[in-house]
Amino acid sequence: WAWTRALLGLRAESVHVCGSADALPLLRSLADACGDELVEHSYERLTPLTATSALGGELERVRPGDCVVAFSRREIFSLRQRIEASSSLSCSVVYGSLPPETRKAQAARFNDSSQPERVLVASDAIGMGLNLNIRRVVFSSLDKFDGEAVRPLTPSEVRQIAGRAGRYRAGGAAAGEVTCLHDGDMRRLRAGLAAPLPPLERAGLAPSFEQLDAFDRAELRRLPFADVLAGFEGSARTDRRYFCCTLEPAVRLAELLELEPALTLAQRHTLSQTPLDAHNDLHADALASWAKAIGRGAPARLLHAPPSRPPRSHSELQQLEAYFQTLDAYKWLAQRFPRAFSQHADRADRYRKQSAELIDAALAELGEPPRDERRGRRR
After folding, report:
1. pLDDT tens across 103-126, in order?
2. Euclidean distance between the first and final Cα of the chain, in Å?
3. Helix, strand or coil for residue 49?
4. pLDDT digit string, tens, across residues 32-53
5. Checking DSSP bridges between strand 150-152 and strand 143-145, what pairing results, if any?
6. DSSP characters for 340-360?
7. Does the chain have fewer CB atoms within 10 Å around its N or its C terminus?
8. pLDDT tens-digit readout, 57-96
9. What angle do helix axes 281-296 and 314-334 make, rounded to 10 degrees?
């Protein structure tokens, strides 16, 4: 929905949209509906991308400049440990829940030929704004857990990840290579690279505050805000160009705010958009504390300082990553509630830097997570 809102609502003379050709039918439809002009430019990849033979499950065949792609934290650390044990190579790691500063530091070491980390083990987070000198992408698997179930990668995902190999002027590579760790995955890889991409037909929408306020008035202000969100989603109707995005994350956050009767509807709406996970205890406690402060007109404080040493276990690492996300949320809310969040804004910046450095230091020391170690602190 944020993409749609930016595309249709930015106050700019022109908006540049970068993407693959499967988005063009949707863009043409949206431009036509708005009476806008759409100017199309097509670009070809400047270096070839070739599917090569699989590694036969032999990690000793990983070579400098490779990026081995996995789709779980456990598999990423396991692969890093096995690659370093079976060769003289060292590895950087990149995955989505790392702070941006840590991802950039890991990427910089991989890109620097004078550093020992000449292999990258990563999730599909390699597509999140990182410039990487990858010569060959090696898929350890072509299945990923999407939060609900394990499913095959779509052709679009295969191409997005594989296309990071051999980018123009990336490490002097004249071409990019893509392969799989296991021979049995090569057929699916080649099929994903060759499959036509189905055109995007609809754009996601989320309700504005004004729409939710009107819905709440229609319900005679009787519903808790979480029920307003859920009711709006269940009642929403769109035309053929759009669909209503799920509001479930906002509903879960809104439920945490029900014990603060002094909050206005507008404040509840903003707090329910905070980039936090309602299922994480640390996030839930932080949001509840800040909501109470806003409702009472008091300063919103940071819960605590970061630890004084790097994490020594994966459980501690995940807790520190979750803590870093609360600092990001504090900065996000400070832009929307400056009076409540101004007192600790500079401290939040300092804690962010300290936490990112501690996480980066921990990555070099931690091996594969124990199988009995739970994923973070969950409700």
Report:
1. 999 999 999 989 999 999 999 998
2. 28
3. strand
4. 999 999 999 999 888 899 999 9
5. antiparallel
6. HHSTTHHHHHHHHHHHHHHHH
7. C
8. 999 999 999 999 999 999 999 999 999 999 999 999 999 9
9. 20
